[in-house]
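QA checklist item 7 of 12: single-chain prediction sanity check.
[x] sequence parsed
[x] length recorded as 202
[x] structure emitted
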Amino acid sequence: MRNILLLTVLPAALLVSCATEMTGPYHPATPPEKVELDRARLNVYPEDVRKDLPAYAAMHVAWAGIIVTNNATEDEASGKIHMATLFDNHYFDWEQKGRGPDAKLAISPRGEGLFRMNWNLSRKKEDASQTDAMKYAAPGNLAIVYGTPLSIGTDGMIDLRYHYIRVLDLDQFTTNELDYGRMGEPVRPIATPRAAGPSPIR
């Protein structure tokens, strides 16, 4: 059982179906995530931001990213755990297969590079630690990240201002079923599944 509970924003929101699993729109896991999803621009991508940061600096975006690295530090005074996370962006068509806790996402193996975000966790139990936080947001897990573009480094790295994050374990998503790009681009089934594990760093 997870020992930590995600915080909402601190003040700064085509799948292959089968007979037994229905494909439908992506469902937010919590009411705060729904608020963020409703306000986010789903057709804005990292390369758009890199080309014109001022045009997107006040815009809410939602990106899917596989966690590459994490650094967790504990703040005893506030009781929060601060996370600094690097993500590898992957295209996401905002569809899911199945419903409820068994729903699964088919994420494209492709995307638009690396981005990072600082975010916070609060302890659900007093004995929760940064080790628990690192297990929760372990490299290889998928995150649905909601934020606002904050800055771009000289290496093209995008920093997002945190609004909300949902983390999914390895059994809740796959990058081995469908290959696709931005919304409206062709979708191709992957004939030979890729090896399991986190995506390579660009």
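[x] summary fact logged: The chain has a mean pLDDT of 84.
[ ] second reviewer sign-off
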